[in-house]
Write a structure and sequence with these properties.
Elements lengths: L18 H22 L7 H21 L3 H15 L7 H18 L3 H20 L11 E9 L9 H7 E12 L4 E10 L5 H11 L5 E5 H4 L4
Helix pairs in contact: 1-2, 2-4, 2-5, 3-4, 4-5
């Protein structure tokens, strides 16, 4: 059975990796990745895409290290391939980046002649992607009170205190994330994360903010949609 999993480029009949070790390593890596992903999500901000990536990356890296083990040339090639991923021009989600790593690991296994390992690995990881996607693994409970607020004010207003009374009335928690000048410095755009006392008061808060900022732009959005995936 192990001969089926030998590299097609091996000139000897001795396998450098047994099928049992391969499945054991993959299973332990997946279990460890899932456990780490669940621990990382405890009382922290995250997206489902990022949690799925954390769960799968250990298995991907384990295959890469197994294939590269003792082969300097392959190690250099892998380092070059990973640098292309790092400096890609188009942004992507954590799930898309994980897909790139899976494809690279599979290609590495094919390139070293381990055809059976590459096929089995890609099928298992593809199945795990489907399972994680259709289940609620990594999803945050939806909280309608958690909002992202982006508001534009004139440059002559003191953004540090101008909305303090409104936030004290309508919110339980407010964090100023960023401050940015826009329109050639004539306006300031503020980015907040906040938790409303009552989500039904969102319209009332917006109306008061509009009165305070001269009816300039005010935008609310859900925190889970506004956060970056990676």
């Amino acid at each position: 059975m192990d001969n089926f999993f030998n590299s097609i480029f091996d000139s000897t009949t001795t396998s450098t990796m047994t099928s049992g070790n391969f499945f054991l390593c993959l299973l332990v890596a997946l279990i460890t990745g899932i456990a780490f992903a669940l621990m990382s999500s405890y009382k922290s901000s995250y997206t489902k895409s990022f949690i799925i990536t954390l769960a799968m990356i250990p298995a991907v890296v384990s295959l890469i290290i197994t294939m590269v083990n003792g082969n300097i040339g392959t190690g250099i090639a892998v380092a070059g391939a990973f640098s292309l991923v790092r400096f890609r021009s188009a942004p992507g989600t954590a799930k898309e980046i994980c897909g790139i790593f899976i494809a690279m690991a599979t290609g590495l296994a094919f390139g070293m002649g381990y055809l059976a390992y590459a096929v089995i690995f890609s099928v298992i990881m593809g199945a795990m992607v489907i399972v994680f996607t259709i289940t609620k693994f990594g999803e945050r409970p939806l909280n309608g009170k958690e909002k992202v607020l982006k508001i534009t004010i004139a440059e002559d207003l003191d953004y540090t205190t101008i909305f303090d009374d409104l936030f004290a009335t309508y919110t339980d928690k407010v964090t100023l994330i960023s401050v940015k000048t826009v329109n050639m410095g004539s306006m300031i755009k503020l980015h907040y994360k906040l938790t409303l006392k009552d989500e039904k008061q969102e319209k009332a808060l917006m109306d008061n903010l509009r009165c305070r900022n001269g009816n300039l732009e005010v935008m609310f959005s859900r925190q889970d949609l506004a956060e970056s995936d990676l």
